[in-house]
Amino acid sequence: MEIERKFLIKKENLPKGYEEYPYNELEQAYIITEPVLRIRKKDDEYILTYKGPGFMTRTEEEFPLNKEAYEKLLSKSEGIIICKTRYKIPDRDFTIELDIFKKDLEGLILAEVEFPDIDTANSYVPPTWFGREVTNEGTYHNSYLSSLNREKLNEVLEAAQS
User: Is there a catalytic annotation at residue 70?
Assistant: First the structure.
């Protein structure tokens, strides 16, 4: 079970020195979006992920892939390939996963924080540099973003920075 909250971040509000924290380069694509069946390249690691429906709380199962299986599935994916750098920033007892999107989603910045239980998630007070919470907005699920055409992507990117 995955329990997480998600927030928009404006570029001008990024914390100083975020680039100095550990990070991963992510590339991900979607085989299907309901339920979510995602493939991800995380640096040199390949992962198949199943995600159930939901917003703050979702079922999530991950399975290792090899490079050949990843590439074969990538050729069968739908929509755009999502590319982002994910920084891991400590925040009290939590880790902020700061996603700086690239390519088709350049300009979108999201922060996600995972929690051990719903009560902890609900009592979390985000840092002041976080923007609007979008946990319950399907618009900011990567699976949804991957399915958008250029016009809709532009609308989402514009709304995220307003």
Answer: no
Domain ranges of the chain: 2-160
Q: Which of 23, 30, 70, 140 is catalytic?
A: 30
In this predicted model, what pLDDT tens digit does every residue of 86-141 receive, in sequence order? 999 999 999 999 999 999 999 999 999 999 999 999 999 999 999 999 999 999 99
- The pTM for the full model equals 0.96
Calpha distance 126→32 (Å, rounded): 32
Please tell me the CATH code under which domain 2-160 is placed: 2.40.320.10
What is the phi-psi region of residue 103: left when phi exceeds 0, alpha when psi lies from -120 to 50, beta otherwise? left
Q: Which two tokens stand for residue 98?
A: 């700061």
Rg (CA), the chain: 15
End-to-end Cα separation, the chain, in angstroms: 32
